[in-house]
Design a protein that fits this description.
- With 249 residues, this protein is mainly beta.
- It has one helix at 2-20; strands at residues 44-47, 55-57, 67-69, 72-74, 82-84, 91-99, 113-117, 121-125, 160-167, 170-172, 175-178, 181-186, 189-196, 211-212, 222-223, 231-232, 239-248.
- The protein contains one helix and 17 strands.
- The strands form four sheets. Strands 1, 3, 4, 6, 9, 12, 13 and 17 form an eight-stranded antiparallel beta sheet that branches. The protein has a five-stranded antiparallel beta sheet with strand order 2-5-16-7-8, with no helix packed on it.
- A hairpin with a 3-residue loop joins strand 7 (113-117) and strand 8 (121-125).
- The relative contact order is 0.22.
- Bound molecules: magnesium ion (MG).
- Magnesium ion binds at residues 112-114, 122, 124-125, 233, 235.
């Protein structure tokens, strides 16, 4: 009898309680997924293999002049670091990169480039295939701040991929309220897991400054509290990039 009372009286209450937590809005928008390397349907394409229209040279905001060949761009040594014309806050970024298959130099002198999130925080690009260097400077390190969890580097000359989730720093009236965070997959393997960024990676000490000089912009001091470009480093070594896209978060 008690069991019957439970079923009749209490069960509907429990079901109703659970239903109270269900939500129906907003409905997530429909996005077509990435297939065979193509970007998802809501991605902003930063390089699709044919031109550098989305990019400028950082030093003087002039046209980006890296080499375009066979669907890839390659650092043209001396052409300078480049940055996106569009600025971004928090984002998902996909970028593929390839050091030359001709092994020259060693340590930091081999396949060195970099992806600067927010123009301030370098996710290192380096040929880390059988190439010893300091671990917070190898491929997939947050430069001089955080080594990768593992080394997933492929053989030089092979294409590799970073999939990055970047949470932008939050500022309120010139005061830092929340630092930036980064999660990175290198060739599909987790290498940075929601790591707090201590500040700019190229300054003598990591630092956050509301007014700052972003990487390779000739120390041009500017407001660094809002959205900022993505930057690709010319470190004077041969590294190529392709299939670069971003989703704003
Ligand atoms: Mg670098």
């Amino acid at each position: 009898m008690k069991k019957l009372l439970f079923l009749i009286i209490l069960m509907p209450c429990l079901i109703a309680y659970g239903q109270d937590r269900a939500i129906y809005e907003p409905v997530p928008i429909r996005v077509s997924p990435s297939e065979n390397g193509s970007p998802p349907s809501d991605a902003i394409i930063l390089f699709n293999g044919s031109n550098l229209d989305a990019w400028n040279r950082t030093a003087d905001d002039g046209p980006a002049r890296w080499l375009i060949e066979e669907g890839a761009i390659t650092v043209d040594q001396g052409a300078g670091t480049i940055k996106t014309k569009q600025v971004f806050g928090s984002m998902q970024l996909h970028i593929e990169w390839r050091p030359t298959d001709i092994i020259r130099g060693s340590g930091q002198g081999r396949g060195n480039s970099g992806v600067f999130l927010h123009s301030l925080f370098e996710l290192q690009i380096l040929d880390s295939w059988e190439n010893d260097t300091y671990v917070n400077g190898q491929a997939a390190a947050i430069y001089l701040q955080q080594p990768p969890l593992v080394n997933v580097t492929k053989h030089p000359g092979e294409w590799q991929a970073y999939d990055i989730v970047f949470t932008a720093p939050v500022w309120e009236t010139g005061t830092l309220k929340s630092p930036a965070y980064i999660t990175v997959l290198h060739n599909g393997v987790l290498v940075q897991n929601h790591v707090e960024l201590k500040g700019a990676t190229f300054t003598p000490e990591p630092e956050y400054k509301a007014q700052c000089g972003p990487y390779s912009q000739e120390e041009r001091i500017q407001d660094c509290t809002g959205k900022m470009p993505i930057t690709l480093q010319d470190h004077g070594q041969e590294v190529s990039y392709r299939n670069i896209w971003v989703r704003e978060l």
